[in-house]
Design the sequence.
């Protein structure tokens, strides 16, 4: 089975870097695009790792939404570039890790249900 993932980036270079890394995984239809309508609001969540980094993605560790504790992080650069693809369920955690390592954000609904 495959899961759809969409991530948002500040620059096209960031999105292209992630595309190259995702190509190493089992993926379908990787598309990098620029958002046209900046009038819509999407609640994005930065991604963070929960667990022991020394054990990688081992037992007890997972990728989770990371929320900034203080009001505003001082960086209001719009995330105008997006990457969307289907990722094998087996590679989904690795895909989220790649996005996290490249400062990508995902829709908060990625982590629901």
Sequence:
């Amino acid at each position: 089975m495959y899961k759809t993932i969409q991530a948002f980036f500040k620059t096209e270079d960031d999105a292209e870097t992630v595309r190259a890394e995702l190509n190493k995984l089992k993926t379908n239809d990787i598309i990098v695009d620029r958002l046209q309508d900046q009038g819509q609001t999407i609640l994005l969540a930065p991604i963070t790792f929960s667990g022991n980094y020394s054990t990688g993605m081992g037992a007890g560790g997972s990728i989770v939404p990371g929320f900034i504790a203080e009001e505003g992080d001082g960086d209001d650069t719009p995330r105008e570039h997006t990457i969307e693809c289907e990722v094998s369920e087996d590679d989904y955690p690795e895909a989220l890790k790649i996005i996290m390592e490249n400062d990508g954000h995902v829709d908060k609904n990625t982590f629901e249900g």
